[in-house]
């Protein structure tokens, strides 16, 4: 008797159809740029450019470059923090450039759904509760990303996504995308069985060849292979952030991180305990001593830097090997 196997379904968000139900997490500052987003889109997933912290001209350049790198029309979106002072303007620039979708996290905006409706651009909020998912559906969201405590960066909950996804699935009639701790084909299948229509993956793509992380930062990813290598730090945004233990993250935890000498007023609200934009940028550029390294806890299971094509091949092969 022939064994049935799991074939990954398509992911439909509005009129968009991704052949593989994988969204690449939008990792700022400048980890997710055109090269990574395009590589993911070319494999049939949804690639995101991390818009937070980018000047408008740079964002336009990255969107146009991603389009050039996806000649067969892959799906390219942006990820942007609602907490960013220029959130509205960044979304407007992306919509002007014909972006395929907007993913928004680190806060919640009711206005963004109106912008999406006016332009016909799918708006996809990142939420951590069924209540906020229902509100998002009422306001006009095209899909919901459900992020749990396993994820890297700013977190909205201390509950795992695998507990929240079924609650959101029961609450909304929209595509649901599970995020946090998704690394392998088995993880993808687990999320789908919990009721998700797709997944968002950050850490695995951060540790890819096409990731815009510096070589030094990628070495930090590979060295983080124990649970104690990961810490929760308080972000000036007002949310906890999951990060890899570094000299800088340890200084944050004892409230000894240097306060910014100059403020670019990049956030709507900021505690000014340290400059998170500059701290993330320093890590991206290779200064891992005084830089902040956001990462999901599943990074401890990543032991190699792989091309995006190989990451997709591994995931689809692993998923196909799992019997129903």
Structure description:
- With 324 residues, the chain is of the alpha/beta class.
- It folds into two domains: 11-211, Alpha-Beta Barrel (TIM Barrel), CATH 3.20.20; 215-300, no CATH class.
- Helix content is 35%, strand content 17%.
- It is built from twelve helices and 13 strands.
- It has helices at 34-42, 56-68, 87-96, 111-119, 130-139, 161-171, 185-193, 203-206, 215-223, 247-253, 276-285, 308-320, and strands at residues 11-13, 16-18, 22-24, 46-50, 75-81, 101-105, 123-127, 144-147, 153-154, 176-179, 198-201, 230-234, 240-244.
- The strands form three sheets. Strands 3-11-10-8-7-6-5-4 form an eight-stranded parallel β-sheet. Strands 9-13-12 form a three-stranded antiparallel β-sheet, with helices on one face.
- The longest helix is centred in the N-terminal third of the chain and has 13 residues, at 56-68.
- The chain is globular.
- The two termini are 14 Å apart.
Supply the CATH class of the largest domain: Alpha Beta
The percentage of residues in β strands lies in: 15-25%
Tell how many strands the DSSP assignment holds.
13
SS-based class: alpha/beta
Indicate the percent of residues in helices. Answer: 25-40%
CATH superfamily of the largest domain: Aldolase class I
The CATH architecture of the largest domain can be given as Alpha-Beta Barrel
| Structural domain tally | 2
Taken in chain order, the helices and strands follow as EEEHEHEHEHEHEEHEHEHHEEHHH
Low-confidence stretches: 1-5
- CATH topology tier name of the largest domain: TIM Barrel
Largest sheet: 8 strands, parallel
